[in-house]
TrEMBL record:
SUPFAM superfamilies: Antibiotic binding domain of TipA-like multidrug resistance regulators, Putative DNA-binding domain. It comes from Bacillus aerolatus. This is MerR family transcriptional regulator. Pfam families: MerR_1, TipAS. Keywords: Activator, DNA-binding, Transcription, Transcription regulation.
């Protein structure tokens, strides 16, 4: 059942002003309008709000959250798994910091000796690797560029693109039992690299990373292995070799 803004604020524990702000920056806008003119939030809106608050709790700025959840490749279920992973890590660090505080109190009272190294256990000001993972999955500019190019193609062009893709997959599938470093395998994977750069902009590092996703993400693996069991792994290895060889 659709809800008014005040109801949503009470449910989520945020202010009405916060929800108005999210609406203004087009991060979260009510999807329905009642006969009375009130703008109403749907269950889908509430799911999105939950995602926003999870990302916000983990230190993501609103601009980055908007980029992530509006990406065509954003997956709610994958996002929840990432939230869990990040929160477990955050809990681990907080537990460590609580221990450090308790030991510092004991040290100040003369109960224990605390080394200088122990004073700073739990602090971590390094780059957030999970934020990078989220950005790579759902905020990647390459994905947006590819989707934009695809959207401007005619039906005939899209059919030609699909045929070209299937042709390369079929060729690689026939080679999947050979060495990924072989001349034929590397020539075939070059065709894939060139093909991808017709619809996007892939650096060699991005190409290698994409290959890794073929085996890390079961959705990629399942789709690619339709052309031949083990093809995803073969492509991953072949793409890595191609990227490394051509960066020299």
């Amino acid at each position: 059942m659709a809800k008014k803004i005040k109801e949503v604020a009470n449910i989520a524990g945020v202010s009405v002003r916060t929800l108005h702000h999210y609406d203004e920056i087009e991060l979260l806008s009510p999807k329905k309008t009642a006969d009375s003119g009130y703008r109403l939030y749907t269950d889908e809106n509430l799911e999105t709000l939950q995602q926003i608050l999870f990302f916000k709790e983990l230190g993501f700025p609103l601009k980055k959250i908007k980029e992530i959840i509006s990406s065509p490749s954003f997956d709610r279920r994958e996002a929840l798994k990432l939230h869990r992973k990040m929160l477990i890590e955050k809990r681990r660090r907080l537990d460590q910091m609580i221990t450090t505080v308790e030991k510092t109190i004991q040290h100040s009272e003369g109960e224990i000796y605390m080394s200088n190294k122990e004073r700073f256990e739990g602090f971590d000001f390094s780059h957030n690797s999970y934020e990078q993972e989220a950005r790579e999955r759902w905020g990647d500019k390459t994905v947006d560029e590819s989707n934009a190019k695809m959207g401007n193609m005619s039906k005939e062009e899209k059919n030609d693109l699909s045929a070209g893709m299937n042709s390369i997959y079929t060729k690689l599938a026939a080679l999947r039992h050979t060495s990924p470093a072989s001349e034929k395998a590397q020539a075939a994977i070059k065709e894939w690299y060139d093909f991808l750069n017709k619809i996007g902009s892939y650096s060699l590092d991005a190409f290698k990373g994409l290959g890794q996703m073929y085996v890390d993400d079961e959705r990629f693996t399942k789709n690619i292995d339709q052309f031949g069991e083990g093809l995803a792994k073969f492509m991953c290895d072949t793409m890595a070799i191609y990227a490394d060889n051509n960066k020299k």
